[in-house]
Amino acid sequence: MGYQIWNRRYTGSKYKLSDWITNLITNNCQGSSFCDIFAGTGIISYSILNKVTSLIINDFLYSNEIIYKAFFDNKPYNIEKLENIKSLYNKINIQSISDNYCSQWYGNKFFSYNDAKIIGYIRENIDFLSTEINEKERNILIASLLYSADKVANTVGHYDAYIKGKDIIDRFVFDLIIPYDTKDKNIIISRCDANNLAKNLKCDIVYIDPPYNSRQYSRFYHVLENLACWEKPQLYGEALKPTPINMSEYCRSNAVIAFNDLIESLNCHYIVVSYNNTYKSKSSSSKNKLALEEIQAILNYKGSLQIFEKPHQYFNTGKTTFSNHKEFIFIVKVGD
Ligand SMILES: C[S@@+](CC[C@H](N)C(=O)[O-])C[C@H]1O[C@@H](n2cnc3c(N)ncnc32)[C@H](O)[C@@H]1O
Q1: pTM of the prediction?
Q2: What mean pLDDT do residues 210-218 have?
Q3: Alpha-carbon distance 203 to 317, whole Å?
Q4: Does the C-beta of 107 come closer than 6 Å to ligand 1?
Q5: Which of 24, 168, 291, 312 is the most buried (most CB within 10 A)?
Q6: 22-48: per-residue pLDDT in tens?
Q7: Which of 3-7, 111-115, 210-214 has the lowest mean pLDDT?
Q8: In this predicted model, what pLDDT tens digit does every residue of 172-210 receive, in sequence order?
Q9: Domain presence at residue 161
Q10: CA distance 32 to 23
Q11: Does any domain span residue 8?
Q12: Does the Cβ of 261 fall within 6 Å of ligand 1?
């Protein structure tokens, strides 16, 4: 068993489109260095891994950075040690552990009370183990906890709200993620604002998949961010969110300015952009902040542009109806 990188629920994940996207990239771009600058789940980095020698994986969320380090960092780890810790975690006697930050805030809300208690206990224990485990092992344990917790979360797939009015069953099981073999690869993992990273980046191909609408990822995945950072802040409101950090310009009305600045800054041979046509959606939170024509105009300036499209069913929580869904890939050959 064990978790693969795509075994999580994530708004805008390109998992189902990853073969299509990576084939377009390998058939239309040349180069051995690749940057996934809004990497999200990291599925596109995973799909392209065997086709490049150098990979830069970036996202501004803490939880995503830990997940990338767990799966991709080319550092040693002891799998037997991790398997032993996993079996200890799965033998925890719920009666023997005390109430903690996680059970107090999230118990009977985002998780069952007992599941929240175990999740909080394990997160605390990972920090406690710090003298016995190295950095890669720590990242693997935290990433494994994030995947295991996400699997049993009482949500529709993100943490903007929890599901109310039903009994939440105890079902938490701790399982390990399965790290990838990245020896012989140059892997760089960063947690930067994409526009800042772009100013200092030099690589052959840059893949750009920004948020499409007003839904802020740091607010959607705040529970996982909180578990990753484990600073135990005060939480607010119905959805128990911390004070906002990492609010993306791409989710605001000046997304066009941010996108233009990003494209202008890039020093690379090919730019690949993912986009979908929810721009005219009736729900304001699903409405795109960037119109297809705006992206096209900005990219046209940078070099010769090819556009590919494919029908696709988007993630939504049931409130939004989209028809004629299409996913687009823009490929620019820079300076052509
Ligand atoms: C549409 S998702 C990417 C999905 C990804 N391609 C996948 O297949 O899983 C957009 C990502 O951009 C990140 N993000 C948003 N604004 C950012 C910024 N200014 N700098 C870096 N990352 C950002 C979000 O955290 C989110 O993970």
Answers
A1: 0.95
A2: 91
A3: 37
A4: no
A5: 168
A6: 999 999 999 999 999 999 999 999 999
A7: 210-214
A8: 999 999 999 999 999 999 999 999 999 999 999 999 999
A9: yes
A10: 15
A11: no
A12: no
Question: CB–CB of 114/138 below 8 Å?
Answer: no
144 and 170 Cβ atoms separated by less than 8 Å? no
Domain of residue 21 covers 15-334
pLDDT at 283 (0 to 100): 66
Count of C-beta atoms within a 10 Å radius of residue 199: 14
In the chain, how many domains are there? 1
Closest ligand 1 atom to 14 CA: 8
**The length of the chain, given as a count of residues:** 336
Q: pLDDT confidence of 289, banded at 50, 70, 90?
A: confident
Q: Which residues lie closer than 8 Å to 204 by C-beta, 6 or more apart? A: 29, 30, 31, 32, 33, 34, 268, 269, 270
Residue 302: CB atoms within 10 Å: 17
User: In CATH, what number is assigned to the domain containing residue 316?
Assistant: 3.40.50
**Rounded distance from Cα 39 to ligand 1 centre (Å):** 6
pLDDT at 336 (0 to 100): 87
For residues 296 and 271, the answer to whether their CB atoms sit within 8 Å is: no
Kindly state whether residue 122 falls inside one of the protein's structural domains: yes
Q: What is the mean pLDDT of residues 242-250?
A: 95
For residue 47, is it within any domain?
yes
The SS3 assignment for 25 reads helix
Any ligand 1 atom below 6 A from CB of 68? no
Alpha-carbon span 166 to 155, nearest angstrom: 12
Ligand 1 atom, smallest distance to 248 CA: 16
pLDDT of amino acid 279: 58
What's the gap in Å between 305 CA and the centre of ligand 1? 23
